[in-house]
Amino acid sequence: MYYRFPDFLHPNALSFEILGFPFSLTWYSLSYIFGIVCAWYLIFIITKTKSLWEEKTILNSQNIEDLMTYLIVGIILGGRLGYVIIYNPEFYWNSPIRIFYLWEGGMSFHGGLIGVIFASIFFAKKNNQNPFLYLDIVALVAPVGLFFGRIANFINSELYGTITNVPWAVTFVQVDNLPRHPSQLYEALLEGLFLFLLLIYFKNKFSNKPGVISGLFLIIYSIFRFIIEFYRVPDEQLGYILLNLTMGQVVSLIFIISGVILFYLKYETR
User: Fold this and answer.
1) How would you class 168 by CB atoms within 10 Å of its CB: exposed for 0-12, middle for 13-18, buried for 19 or more?
2) What residues contact 33, with CB distance under 8 A and at least 6 apart?
3) What pLDDT, in 10s, does the model give residues 157-166?
4) Do residues 231 and 219 lie in contact, with contact meaning Cβ atoms separated by under 8 Å?
5) Region 163-179: what's the mean pLDDT?
6) Distance CA 114, CA 199 (A)
7) Residue 6 CB-half CA count within 13 A
């Protein structure tokens, strides 16, 4: 017996009309809102908790809002351009105007991560501080956004898993009604909740080495993503691209190598 995707869950969390014009608030949009609000709150808590954050930063309520503005821009620009360039370049080459059609979907976590890295560096440089202080802060709270995002993917019946006969398989009626791995929930638990707990634990171990947490985030997230991709249907327009690996796995390998190098360099710093 398999779990049927709940009929009451719909991609639109709320639909309404204003002056006769229809509007919809999607779960995916709400996941961004929840993730950003939770990230703001966690950054405030983490930087005020001495057992978690001994480094001196300029962050206060106003500066956290400024940092979040930089991060939001980085997430949107990086996520969108990452999807366009990495996952669907031919489509957007033929229809470049649709790059701006964000409501159609199409965001890349890897692209968003690169955008966040640049945004954190710009913010740190603007305030004459060590960029790795802010990259570590962002790395600690990023899994919260990942958690909400993957839950939204599940509700939208997208990024679903391969066909399986495991007892916890889910039949996505909007797809094909076949039992599939709920890969979105695997990612929510591993890349979201479990990764967050691991990074908080390691932060206590490496509290005086800025950059180590960023390296660990790249390594652990990418390992989880690489493994889960085996249970997730690859992007239709790409399929398997190299040695029977998906694009997500290839990019994850690059991030693992980058994370190992960063971890080694920052761990050895005295």
Assistant:
1) exposed
2) none
3) 888 999 998 9
4) no
5) 87
6) 19
7) 7
What is d(CA 167, CA 51) in angstroms, rounded to the nearest whole number? 42
Q: What is the pLDDT of residues 177-225, one digit of tens each?
A: 889 999 999 999 999 999 999 999 888 787 778 899 999 999 999 999 9
- Encoded amino acid at 77, one letter: L
Strand extents, DSSP E, the chain = 3-4, 12-18, 21-26, 170-171, 179-180
Residue showing tokens 């039992």: 179
Asked if residue 114 lies in contact with residue 86, where contact means CB atoms within 8 angstroms, the answer is no
Contact 222, 252 (CB under 8 A): yes
DSSP 117-180: HHHHHHHHHHTTS-HHHHHHHHHHHHHHHHHHHHHHHHHTT-S-B-B---TT-EE-TTTTS-EE
Domain boundaries, the chain: 3-267
Identity of the residue numbered 39:
A
